[in-house]
Amino acid sequence: MNVEKIVKKARKSIGVFCNKECKAYCCRKGYLVLDKKETKLMMETIVKNSKDMNCIKKINDEQYSLFLGDEANHCPGLLDFKCTIHKNKNRPLACQEYPIFIRGNKIDLSHRCLAVKQGLFYGLISQLKKLGYEVEETKGNLDSDLSNLKI
User: Please, which pLDDT band fits residue 149 given cuts at 50, 70 and 90?
Assistant: First the structure.
């Protein structure tokens, strides 16, 4: 099995945990860096769900930041701790990859993810190391908040 299939299976395996246990914590805290296409989808979602547009700020000509910092400003796509845009092909890349980021022969696991903190990816880590990947938990700002950020 290749790394993409292993990681996809691992992400899928925590779906119930995300909804029932952690209540989509990743969608309720921090910032999400978006490109133009992702921003358009999020703005449409904000309008559809009557949310405040002030949660999106322009970073530069190509990127925007979506604030997910508190209960009033959680992800506009989140409803009852479920993602309403999960199947949309334009949903943010950080959301698609979270909490496992493949970076060449290195795999980063988000330090903010409660499934990571609880060791729910133990089997995944073992499989990936056998395939020669370096696997580690992110620290500080090296997380989904910055996965798309080009500085």
Answer: very low
Q: Which two tokens stand for residue 43?
A: 């703005």
Contact 94, 81 (CB under 8 A): no
SS (H, E, C) the chain: CCHHHHHHHHHHHCHHHHHHHHCCHHHCCCEEEEEHHHHHHHHHHHHHCCCCHHHEEECCCCEEEEECCCHHHCCCCEECCEECCCCCCCCCHHHHHCCEEEECCEEEECCCCHHHHCCCCHHHHHHHHHCCCEEEECCCCCCHHHCCCCC
Angle between helices 3-13 and 122-130 (to 10 degrees): 180
Q: What is the mean pLDDT of the chain?
A: 86
**What is the distance between the alpha carbons of residues 129 and 134, in angstroms, rounded to a whole number?**
6
Residue 144 pLDDT exceeds 60: no
Any idea where the domains of the chain sit in the sequence? Answer: 3-143
pLDDT digits (tens, 9 = 90+) for 29-75: 888 899 999 999 999 988 988 777 888 999 999 999 999 876 667 89
How far apart (Å, rounded) are the C-alpha atoms in residues 68 and 32?
Answer: 7
